[in-house]
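Hi all, posting the design record for the shared folder.

TITLE: backbone redesign
STEP: 1 of 1
STRUCTURE INPUT:
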């Protein structure tokens, strides 16, 4: 079926910024930039540091956590699923892992879903339904 009068939003990937493109193709527009997701990653990192500090700063786990650095953004610009979740929450959207009991209907009848966020070989991509047709973006 051809898309008549309907635009399919897609971004060309730059660097390792596939998470940015993934979120934007789910939303079907240029709503987030690398800087937006980096700020969300920094917020998550700060909250995680605070939680680790509350458990005690004189523990091996705390110091290991501090040495490892951010798990929400890699030096090459790849973002964690938690960052993608935080970005989509802005739009009242939820990321539900496919293994979750909540995703039973999506596993049983995936055609009913509007979008899937996928991660394969260090690459984020979207499977998005637009006007009844599914596209890998």
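Okay, here is what came back for every position:
SEQUENCE:
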């Amino acid at each position: 079926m051809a898309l008549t009068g309907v635009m399919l939003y897609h971004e060309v990937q730059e660097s390792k910024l596939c998470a940015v493109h993934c979120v934007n193709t789910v939303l079907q527009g240029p709503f987030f930039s690398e800087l937006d997701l980096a700020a969300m990653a920094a917020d998550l990192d700060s909250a995680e540091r605070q939680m680790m500090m509350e458990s005690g700063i004189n523990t091996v786990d705390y110091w290991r956590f501090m040495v490892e650095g951010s798990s929400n953004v890699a030096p090459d610009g790849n973002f964690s699923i938690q960052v993608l979740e935080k970005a989509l929450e802005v739009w009242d959207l939820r990321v539900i892992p496919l293994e979750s009991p909540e995703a039973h209907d999506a596993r049983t009848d995936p055609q009913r879903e509007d979008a899937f966020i996928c991660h394969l070989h260090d690459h984020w991509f979207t499977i998005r339904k637009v006007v009844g047709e599914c596209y890998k973006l």
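COMMENT: The first strand starts at residue 115 and ends at 120.
Let me know if anyone wants the other runs.
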